[in-house]
Amino acid sequence: MSKVKASRQSLERGWGFLDAFEVPASSVKDRSAVFIRETTHNDRKTEVYIKIYANRKHPLQRVFRSGRSQREVGNLLFFQSLGIPTPQVIAWGERRNPFGRIVEEFIITESEKGTLQLDEFVRSFCPDPEQSEQQAMRRHIAKNLGEWTARIHAEAFIHEDLKWRNILVRPNGTTPELFWIDCPNGRFMKKGKALDRKKLKDCAALDKLAHLECTKEERKAFIAAYLGDSGNAGSVAKMCREVENYRRRRFDPKDRTQREGS
């Protein structure tokens, strides 16, 4: 983790670093906004995403606390250290007022060209689980996600927002390339029952769309990859039930309410 911390610190820049991008940061009044720009990085032109976080709601919000941009950069670098691909971080920074409160933050990452969000990719490139090539693509995705989720959980790290919209996919035959993005809320936890519940929550968050878009066998493939060598037919079936029950209890009623209100 010391290498991750050192890498994160080396990427910190002052607020004036944004000037070259002509980003209207002051126009972001609440939560966050993303701007797309072109720049030259490592002697090549590249498209970048600039996310601005604004903390203007409460006078005590983000007082003497680490910012979301700092945490997000650290989390992305942590994923990379585990072999989980993420967009390349170019820079991050924050601006505090005289009382130590963070009022604005930014994080700049390279664009991953040719990618789609996971839900868009599945619907566009492999909607048919019965077609052999598409089936192979879907199984590859399930295997990757199962293995990667297990890797972060083995380090007692919880993602907290492991949803299909936070996974990018680039076409590559039957082995599409996946990238994890957007993880400002992920954190390490002490081992125990609370951590176990959070692990289940991460898996159930992925299942929110998986139970609509994937077959039961594909969802089992995710759990089998997550359990790895320690898994067998009985333990896979048991965890499938636990994830299903958690999703139905915690997520389905909320999703139903949102659909009815829209």
From TrEMBL:
Gene3D superfamilies according to UniProt: Transferase(Phosphotransferase) domain 1
The molecular function GO annotations come to: protein kinase activity
**Pfam families listed in its UniProt record:** Kdo
- What InterPro entries has UniProt attached to this entry? Kinase-like_dom_sf, Ser/Thr_kinase_AS
Organism superkingdom = Bacteria
Protein name as it appears in the record: Non-specific serine/threonine protein kinase
